[in-house]
Amino acid sequence: MTSTSKTSDLLLRQTRIHFPRLEEAKVKITPIEKGGSDRKFYRVRCSPEQTIILVKYNLEREENRHYVAIAEFLAGHGIRAPRIYFHDPAEGLIWIEDLGKTDLWSSREESWIVRRAFYESALGEIVKLHCLSEEAARTIHENLPAEFDAALYRWEQSYFFENCLGRFFGVEARELSELAALPSLAGIAADLAQRPRVLVHRDFQSQNIIIRNGQAHLIDFQGMRPGLAEYDLASLLFDPYVTFSRAECEELLADYEAKRTAAGQPVAPDFRATFRFCGIQRLMQALGAYGFLGLVKGSKTFLDHIPAAIESLRGLVGEIPELKRLSVALERLR
Question: pTM of the predicted model, to two decimals?
Answer without folding.
Answer: 0.93
